[in-house]
Amino acid sequence: MAIPPVNRSTLVAADTNVLLDLAVPRDKVHDAVEILRRRVPGVDFVVLPTVLDELHYIARDGDTVSDRSLATNALRSLVREWKFRPVDFAPVEHGIVAAVAAKLRGQDLIPEHEHNDSYILAEAALADCTMLLTSDEHLRGADPTLLSLLLKSSDVGAVVVRTPTEIVRQFGGKR
Question: Is 44 helix (H, G, I), strand (E, B) or coil?
Fold first, then answer.
């Protein structure tokens, strides 16, 4: 008897800047999320632990009232309105994330001072996300080939880093 195929989700991690942009009505990121939902079967948007920490920090201590308001709105909208799923890791997995993040910074794929960016990328890889959706140039600047090799050698998933603008430009047309 054949075993039925497992329907696996395609996980897409959203960076903090993407969630803050989603809190702005009709920003381009809305189009990117809609395109991915429409064109990628089984897409599941996830929010990583460091992203949640950053949103909580900005909601409480952001530089401006506008920043604090956007972060608060993002936190309120994540699950019920946007249907994004927060993820967390077991303590040992947090240790793996720290080790991978240190390698990302140590190999200059992510600048040394961009601690949180290295964690977000490592968390996306450990969560086996196919894509990290971000507008952050530090994350976008990582050489994709070297990034893939480092992640593979760390026994975590490969992650493609894309911006909302790239998604809209590449996949926005109707087929």
Answer: strand
Half-sphere exposure of 144 (CA within 13 A, CB side): 7
What are the pLDDT tens digits along the chain (175 aa)?
A: 454 444 568 999 999 999 999 999 877 899 999 999 999 989 999 999 999 999 999 999 999 999 999 999 999 999 999 999 999 999 999 999 999 999 999 999 999 999 999 999 999 999 999 999 999 998 999 999 999 999 999 999 999 999 999 999 988 755 4
CA–CA distance, 18 with 31 (Å, rounded to integer): 12
Cα separation, 12 vs 141, in Å, equals 19
Tell me the whole-structure pTM to 2 decimals: 0.91
User: Which CATH number applies to 10-171?
Assistant: 3.40.50.1010
Closest CA to 43 of 82, 79, 8, 89: 8
CA distance 136 to 17: 7
**What residues does each domain of the chain span?**
10-171
Q: Is 113 left (phi over 0), alpha (psi -120 to 50) or beta?
A: alpha
Q: Which two tokens stand for residue 53?
A: 């920490």
